[in-house]
Write the structure tokens for this entry.
Amino acid sequence: MPDHGHTGRRAAALAAVPTPDDGVRLTDVRVWDETTRPTGPRPDPARRYTPREQANGRHLIDVHDHLRAELAQLRDLIDQVAAGTLDADAARSHINTMTMRQNNWTLGAYCESYCRLVTMHHTAEDAMVFPHLRRAEPGLAPVLDRLTEEHHAIHKILERVDRALVAFVTDPAGLDDLSAAVDLLTDSLLSHLSYEEHELVEPLARHGL
């Protein structure tokens, strides 16, 4: 039997705090209307959570923090290439570091790897986590539907990044298009991750992964 934490001595208020959206946007393009996002049932403010439930709630934030860090590194790579601060020989010496300054081919390979990481994360949520939450808490259905729609929209942006990468590797003049695509990915992904955490961290604590 799971310990729901109402009377357990070690139970405490939920410590996993969703990441706030700072409202900063790099582009004027909006792929969705943030004002129409539904919200789920509000949790009981008096509820207490066991250490295991705390960990369940924190897991989503940890995964998202990794995606945020990788996104920041992706942006740094593009900035370094755009600045042209290193020649090819010096760039190759950084090939095994996460904040590499390197040639266009390696930048492209890194960007593609990140795009796959985001896609895998969203696929896992859509295939496993969301159906579980939908069964456990039907009131979350509108939120889960919206999150799935946003996953599809982000995948389209990732495809745009891929296309921009192909063009950039063959023609350095394509750097502006690549930067614009990554800016749009940044706006959309950070907004989405914050919204998802705000709506799902507490339900995941109660219902598990």
Summary: Helices lie at 51-83, 88-92, 104-136, 141-170, 175-207. Residues 81 and 101 are 7 Å apart (CA to CA). The chain is about 65% helix and 0% strand. The radius of gyration is 20 Å.
